[in-house]
Each structure stands twice: as C-alpha cells, then as structure tokens.
Amino acid sequence: MKHFSSSLFAALLLSAGPTGAFAQGTVNVGAVLSLTGASATIGEDVRRGIMLGVDQVNSKGGVLGKKFNVIVEDSGGNATTALNAARKLVGVDKVPVVMGEYSSSITLPVGQYLVKEGVTHLNINSSSIKLKDLGATSFGLLGLENYANSFSASDTFALGYRKVAVIAPNNAYGQGVLQGYKEAFEKLGGKVVTEVLYAAGQSTYRRELEQMSRSNPDAFVYTAYGQEAAVINREAHDLGLRKTPWYAILLSMCVSDTPPEIANGQLGMELGAVQGPAGKAYAEAFTTKYKEGFKTAYTGYGYDAVLMTAAAMEKARSADAAAIQAALKEIGQSYAGVTGVISFDANRQRLNPPYDRLKYENGKIAQR
Amino acid sequence: MFDFLVFSLTVAGIYALMALGLNLQAGYAGLMNFGHIAFAGLGAYATGIAFTLGWAPLAGAALGVLAAMALGWCIGRIGNKLASDYWGIATLAIAEILRTIAINEDWLTGGSNGISAIPSLFDGLGRPWSGLAFLGLVMLAVAVCALLCRRLGDGRFGRALRLMREEPQLAACMGYDLRSLKSRTLMAGAAITALGGSLYAHYMSFVSPDYMFPAETFLLWTMVMIGGVGSTAGVLVGVALVQAANVLAPFAREVLGFGSDVAGALRLGLIGLILLACLLWRSEGLVPEKLRKMP
Predict the structure, then answer these.
(1) If interface means Cβ-Cβ distance under 8 Å, which residues of chain B face chain A?
(2) pLDDT of residue B254
(3) In chain B, whose CA is at the least distance from the CA of A173?
(4) Which ranges does the record mark as transmembrane (chain B) (predicted)?
C-alpha cells in the first residue's frame, strides 16, 4: 500500500468503497449530538463538520493504518437520552474518545460520566464555565463563556457605549452572559443600567423592551435564540428603539430569523467560525460536499476535534484512552486547526479562543 | 455491554416507578395529570438540595416524598369545579411554575446550571458491584411499588376510584367523598414518583430544570398508554417496550446500515410507530385493564 501516492490512494478509496483500502479493522470514536429536539439544526450542522473530518482523515490513510470512523449518536436534546448514548458508546462500542454535546446542561452530566470512566471527553459546543471543573480527561476546544463575555464587554466599551441595557434568555446560557458581561463591562468603567432575563417562547416582549428603554441607555446589548430574537427585533423596531445602537452577542443566532430590513445596522460578535487559509479551505470543502455553507459557527470545532483525535492517536501510536489524553496535551500546546490555533490551559480548556467583530448590513453578516 | 445493560435496566426501573405513579392517578382514578413530572422533579431536587446541605440520602428521599405528597394534596384540592380536561391543563401549568422556580431560585436550586456531583449510592462497592447494587435497589423499589399499586387497585380503594372514574355522580351518591379520593390518589402517586425522581438524581449525579420539561410527562404517558391504562402489569410492559426502543434504536441503525444522519429520526420514529400501532390495534394497551363484571 505504501507505494501509492496519496492522490491515487484517495481515488482508490473513493472507487473501492470504505472496506477495500485499509488493513483489517476500524478505529472508532464516538460523538453525542442533538440530532432531534430544539437544537437539531445545530446538531446536524456539527455532524456534517465531523463527517467531513472523517473523510479527511481517511483520505490521508486513516489512523494507525486502519479506517477511522466516528459513531454519531442522538442526544434527543435531553440528558437521559444523551447519557444512554454515551453509555452505549463507552460500554458497547468501547470508544476511547467521545465528543459532544451542545447544551451545557447535557454536556455536564455526559462529561462527568465520561471522566468517571476514564474516557476522553472533547467539548466542542458548550461554553458554561462549570465545564472546566469536569476533570482530568475532559478537554475543551472552544472558549468558555468568560472569554466571550470579556470580548463582548471590551468590544462594546471600545464602541464608545458607557450605559447599556442588557437582555438575555433566562437559562444557563443567558444567566452566564448577563452576569459575566456585567462584571467585565463594569470593570472597564461602563455601567449596565437595566438587566432583563426573558422567558423563552413568549409572543411579545414589549414589557421587557419598555423596561429597558426607560433607562435611556447608550446601546441595547442582547442575545436571544432565532425565533425569540425575531420578536424582540420587530418590537424594538415598532417601539422606535432602533434609533439607539443594538449590539448582538452571537449575531448569527440573533438575526437568523429576523427580516433583513429590520436587522440592518446591528453590530455584534460571534464565536470565531473559521480562521485563516485552512479555515477557508475547510469552508470550501464543506460547501462542495453539502451543496450549502455551514449554518452555525460550531461545525469547525467538530472538524478540529476529529482531526486532533486522529493526530493524537497517530502520535501515541495507540487507540488507548490514557495514551490519547497524554498525546492531546502535547499536541494541544499549539495545534493549527481550522478554528485557529488551539492551545490548552492548565484545565485543558482553550486559551485565547477566536471571536469575530461583525455587523449586519445589506441583508448579510460582514466583518467590521 | 454488561455495563450498558445494567444502565438501561436501571433507567427503565426508575421510569417504571414514575409510570406506576402516573397510572395510579390516570389509570385507576381517570385523573388527566399532565404535570406529573413535577413530582419526580420535587424528588430529584429534594435529593440534590439535601446533598448540598450534607444530609443523608434517605433524608433527601423522605423530604422529596413528603414535598411531592403535599403538592399532590394541593393539586387535588384546587380546581375542584374544573372539568377533567381543564384540570389537566391546570396541572401542566403547576409543573411549569415549579420548573420556572427551579430556574430562577439560584440560592436553592443552583438556577439553570442545576446541582451537580450528587453522589451515587453505592460508589464504595467498586465496579461492577456499585451498578448492580443500584439496579437491585431500583428493582426492589419497583417490585414493592407494583405490588402495592396492585393491592391498592384491587381493594376497596381501587374500586372506589374506578367508580369515581366511570360514574362520579353514582360514587357521590354512594357516600364517597370525591375530593378526598382524588387527593389521596394524587398523594399516593406523587410519593412513588418522587421516590423515582430521587433515585434518578442519585443515578445521574445531576439535577437541572431540564428534567421537568413537559415532554418528560408525555413520555410517561406514552409508556402507560402503550402498556395499558389502569393495568399494573401493562405499565411495566409499556415501560420495557419504550425503553427497549430507546436502547435498541442505535443498534438497529448499525444493523440496517443507516448513516449517522438518521440516528435521531430512527429513535423517535420507532417510538412513534409503536404508539401508533398500539393506538390503532390495541387501543386499550397491550395488557388491558381487567374489570370485574357483575353478572
């Protein structure tokens, strides 16, 4: 097999199907994603990123001379089903690595279980600060909320806002944003004049918006899920609040369901999706394979997780969980991924994660 | 594989406790409780809070059972004049209020981050005995509760409940205090369900407001309806079937060679299909309730 060039190898792989080109056996790792339930769009997007990573690894000859595969299981967006999936992956498929989930309140129990079993856990989507305490076998590929909060606080401060009103959903994510943002913004010398946690799924948020406008802020800072953000944006428009600047934390999530004429002119930030030439190549490969671009900023993290795992296995020359963890710590001093350079801190969480400064104009999200 | 099997059986056992609690109310007494998960949530949170206070697990479980029984009593007393479907919506609202409280009262419930690191009961035994001991405890609880439910259902109390379900006016004429019957049923169902919730919190080592989503109540309803409303054996069959569908869906996918993109759809589809088939062909459930007929 060795004397084939890599392109010939890839061509052979495509024509012969997955079984023909490798030594006997498959190296499996696992992923628990929310493929059904409220976050299904994100789960599917991440699954695509992961599968692209698998193709990439296999086109370069797989892992340890064998075919590489990620077994993806559905979390159903709830903790019991997610744990069921994780137990299946660990107990039956005997995988050394499990990635996932999306919501922090599911990632936490899944991560706890995996750490207890000594299996490597890769957090690719969740940002609760509690994740850093999961334990020695859990690694975080994306920045936790402390980074995001200080980024949006300094960004809004740099835009010249000193008095802001903040609204966020009343859940783990929203509470984390509100507390963290407020702390960081007030440390810089600004003031949060109104803070509102909204209840999900309401048909109107007029009361909340009027409460915020009474304090006459320099800017409104908000973060909300697509459908709810659409209601908030429309009503803010109707109430004439858009004369004041609006700043969105996770802009793409906030404007995904809002008509462009209403969303135009908003500023915001976003988890860095892809960075540099490697990121650009990844985005192109994604579009070629799935005939559309990615919908969220999360897919790149799934892709990076797959490639890092494969690299760690190659470095350790083993598919044993402990050996992979040791190799991940070494690789994780500086790994060039499509989401930028990944390096871990002492708690195995990503240092200096990338964020993008964005604006929404002419119906599109653009760098600012 | 062995570990996974033990886990699946334990979870099934915990769901069985909750479903038995629902069956007492919905099956025997015909109470359309759409907020049943609130009882399990109270049990789970009581265990979590007791853990943060440093109490013994038994004290946590007792606290949960008592709190759930108190809630059951209250639900039984409110909305006496409501028709059964409106009462069902009221129970849904009460469960949602409790979930909202759990999200907002950080000092008590840990807010939306929940309470984590609740110790499992038998960690000291090492593997695989800790898992087996937990399974044993859950199965014992299921057996005791199933026998109790059966006795309760077959006895005078159960007959009164069925009469209240079928002919409330007649039951009232015969001197039964319907309000008291309703409250006592809800309290009994709540106690069993809270016990299930408490075991759940220990087993998952974690409790969060997400556990009280209305979807969980409807999962229990699905189990009870597939098995047979009003039949204890039926409820156990229903739980086993739904849990089996949950557990086997990933394997079915691998055997059938489906890609990972249908992983979620297959699990939901399988449960939906079972429910639909049962509703169409066995509308009274797989093990229907046997009513004693007077000749």
Answers:
(1) 1-4, 7-8, 11, 100, 103-104, 106, 111-114, 116-117, 204-206, 208-211, 213, 215-216, 246-247, 250, 260-261, 263-265, 267-268
(2) 82
(3) B112
(4) 6-24, 31-49, 55-74, 86-103, 129-149, 186-206, 218-242, 262-282
